[in-house]
Amino acid sequence: MPRPGKTRRSPVSPVFGGKPAAASGSPEAPWRASDAAWQPWFLAAAATLLAARPLFPSEGAERGDGLPVVMLWLALAVMWWLFQAGRPRIRFRFGLPDAAVAVLTAAYAVSGLFAVFRGTARPAVNMLWEAVGFGLVFLFLRQFEWPARRVRAVLAVMVATAVGAAAFGLYQYGVEMPAVQAAYRSDPERYLKLAGLGEYLNNPDALRLFENRFFSREPLATFALTNSLAGFLLPWGIVLLAATGHTAARAWLGGRRLLRRFRDSGRGDASAEKAPGDAAAILRALILLAALSALGLCLILTKSRAGYLAALFGAVALAWSNRGVLGRRVYYLLSAGAAAVALLAGLAFALGGLDPLVLYEAGKSLLFRGQYWQATWRMILSQPWLGCGPGNFRFVYARFKLPDATEDISDPHNFLLEVWATAGIFALAALLVLLAVFFLRIWRYGKASRSVLSGEVGTAARPAASPGPDSRDARRLTAALVAAWPLGLALSLLSSAPQTLASLMVGLPAALLTYWALQGWVRAPVRQEAAPSPGEAGLCGLAAAVLLIHWSASGGWSFAAVSQSFWLLAAVGLSCLEDAAGPSSPRIAADFREAPGPVAYALTAVFAVLTLSCYATAYAPVLRCRAVMEQASRSDVDPRLALAALDAAAQADPLAVEPLLRRLAVLGTALAQGGEGSPPGLPRGESDQERLRQDLDRTAAELLKRAPNSDSAAFSVALAYLRAAERTGDAEALRKAEAAARRALELQPGQVLYRARLADILHQQGKSAAAAREAEAALRQDDAITNPERKLPEEWRVRMELLSGRRAGP
Fold first, then answer.
1. Are 527 and 461 within 8 A, CB to CB?
2. Nearest to 536 by CA among 546, 521, 548
3. Do the domain assignments include residue 320?
4. Which of 85, 206, 545, 775 could form a disulfide with 804 if both were Cys (CB 3.0 to 4.6 A apart)?
5. Within this chain, do residues 252 and 374 fall inside the same structural domain, yes or no?
């Protein structure tokens, strides 16, 4: 008997088009049967969004790059409940894992609301909606029923997308990157100005950091960071490995039959066994082997050490979990896999994409992560309950950053620490509950499985579903895969990192070819064992575990293009265990519940309000501001036009910080270069200068209000006032520069350059004793720093020695 409050699904899934077996006289049967007409379309729409999201970068989520996708998910939820409205009763899935995700999302929302008032509001609001989108992906996918073939079909869409991304990454490595780097070398100044990075020409440190990244050969595909690309490829690479193993086994049997048929036909034996699908199975296996090689090579070229470890764990665990089926052959497969990895690594080395430094610097990389984790732990202890708020990690982290730490990171490179530091202890507890339920259920109900290859290879298995509904579902998902690539390209045009047409031209053919090759695995007969289908659920669990291992030492939890893979795998894996056929065995009671029909109207209204709220607070202002900022970029030649456009951008988004930062730079330059004989477009009279000073005060005050916890914003204010005082030595401007520099140093005490700048400002004000104290403190701090990238530049070191008295002046 099912537990109270639980409802067993009907033996035939209504989502697949079969008529549910309802009790005679049941009033719910007619409207439940009508679900078959529209729910598959919702699944296709969801698959389109899932496949489109990795096709443009999500690392700029705090800038609002992912908001269009969140809006589409919210609109999809509104349509879902609108289709449910008008029925006597509605049916939905909501159990312990769903409650955990709801609590996790609510914790992010509460923390985000607090961050709006106590931190930098724009990234907090943007990332709050991203968190809502994560929860919605999980809860929405849980509403479908997940028979084995449906699981494989949706996983195949994501695997094909990953192979397409890997193919584009290899194209970047071999063709696109060398061409772009050659263009930069021919005229760096022109290239930087065309890319909107002209300010790097006056900042040697920023230029050096940019060029170090620019001339790296690691492929990025449709991502902004190599670790993000590795995180996306990893789980789907494991699924592809399982599908390739299954298809290769069928191809091996088919090849033997073809060989036997050829031999028997040569003898004139008319009774030779016919196997019309054997040639197709062999072709599919060859394509999947090529796809797996491309994905593996791209993963190796990312130089993600955490990715290497996660992939090793996943491959070994996959082989070991199939030891009951493979027997002693598992050791041969492991040896063959090791040889294949060595071959791919050798190819990467020959191409110049892999070098011994990847291994030699592993200790340094681990040391850096230890620094991140140590500072994050101190940060957590300072605010354990609600965290710093989504999108505000890098601002608060700066206060606890170790002096030797190299990078200004936006996440701690560990997903558990990130959740706790960002959204507090309740979010962490909810996530741990979800993970415990997910993996314990898979372990408990999947350990009886002999394989996680999903599907029988032999001929004894009986198909579990009729071919008609499966083929219709397959056509919809094929259309979803095709539509996802142009949709991803279109959505990227709304982001801060638009993609080129090359991603579509290279990635889509590779994705479609892989998807066709996966159909042998997708349509394979389903086991008729009594136990729940552990193959699909176990595969989802293993792929999710691989991603979590990667996240244990790298970023990506808050990047939608990567993290949605986890939410998909968790939702499908949990639902698959509940929906698996196995009436004669212990099973997990499905979390489907029923509620009165009017609840659908209420939920429609709730999601409609959420959609409008997302549009009003994030989507519309961010896109309006971005459009006006484009106009400002084209007006840089005329400071007055640029100031007007930037002011309009700041008004278009009342929470935006970037327009104010740009205004500060323009105002500081205008005040420094103004006066008689100034270039055209700059103020000449004293009244114009006074208006600019007032504008600078207003802009600085508004910036510090919008980003009160940003050390870089405070330091930008200090630099703007310094520029304003260059020509006239304005004492009031220097005083304001000192206050802003002290605020920046308070927000990031480990930044020695801030202290050196403060000493210099004090010296310009004539405060010699205070300047000497700060200069001496800067020198002591610089002496304690062992990381050469964090030490003072030589010219600043000399200046501090002069101010402190360590070195005599000329």
1. yes
2. 521
3. yes
4. 775
5. yes
Contact between residue 766 and residue 744 where contact means Cβ atoms under 8 Å apart: no
Specify whether 581 is located in the same domain as 653: no
3-state helix, strand, coil split of the chain in percent (to 5) is 70, 0, 25
Per-residue burial over 797-808, b = 16 or more CB atoms within 10 Å of its CB, e = otherwise? bebbbbbbeeee
Give me the DSSP letters along 105-142: HHHHHHHHHHHHHHS-HHHHHHHHHHHHHHHHHHHHHT
661 shares a domain with 530: no
Q: In whole angstroms, what is the distance from residue 739 CA to residue 653 CA?
A: 27
Rounded to an integer, what distance in angstroms lies between the CA atom of residue 164 and that of residue 172?
12
The residue from 587, 615, 641 where one domain ends is 587
* Cβ pair 161, 514 in contact under 8 A: no
- Distance (Å, whole) CA 460 – CA 3: 34
The helix/strand/coil state of 231 is: helix
Give the DSSP H/E element, type plus range, for residue 93: strand 89-93
Domain identity same for 660 and 551:
no
The rounded distance, in Å, linking the Cα atoms of 171 and 176 is 7
Residues in a beta bridge with 93: 592
Q: For residue range 551-596, list pLDDT tens digits in order.
A: 999 988 999 999 999 999 999 999 988 887 554 444 566 788 999 9
Same domain? 557 vs 693: no
| Same domain assignment for residues 383 and 491 | yes
Q: Kindly report the CATH number assigned to the domain that includes residue 795.
A: 1.25.40.10
CA 451 – CA 376 distance, rounded (Å): 40
CA atoms of 307 and 413, how far apart (whole Å): 13
Residue numbers of the domain that contains 321: 95-112+144-261+276-460+478-587
Report the phi/psi class of residue 22: left, alpha or beta, with left for phi > 0 and alpha for psi in -120 to 50.
beta
CA max distance for the chain = 107
The upper half-sphere exposure of residue 345, i.e. CA atoms within 13 Å in the direction of its Cβ, equals 12
> Strands, DSSP E only, in 360-418?
none
Question: Distances from the Cα of 121 to the Cαs of 113, 617, 716, in angstroms?
Answer: 9, 11, 18
**Model confidence pTM above 0.70:** yes
pLDDT at 495: 87
CB atoms within 10 A of CB 369: 18
Q: Tell me how far apart the alpha carbons of residues 455 and 440 are, in angstroms, rounded to a whole number.
A: 23
Strands 89-93 and 592-596, by their bridges, are: antiparallel
Separation between Cα atoms, residue 626 and residue 638, nearest integer Å: 19
- Predicted pLDDT at 744: 97
Kindly state whether residue 51 falls inside one of the protein's structural domains: no
| 749: its two tokens | 């005490």
Across the strands, what pairs with 595? 90
Residues in the chain: 810
Which among 547, 571, 587 is the end of a domain? 587
CA dist 70 and 76 (Å) reads 10
Pair 339, 443 in one domain? yes
Say if 661 falls within a structural domain. yes
Total domains present in the chain: 2
pLDDT of 456 over the 60 cut: no
Average pLDDT over residues 192-216: 69
Domain for residue 592, yes or no?
A: no
221 and 339 both lie in a single domain:
yes
Q: What is the 3-state secondary structure (H, E, C) of 605-622?
A: HHHHHHHHHHHHHHHHHH
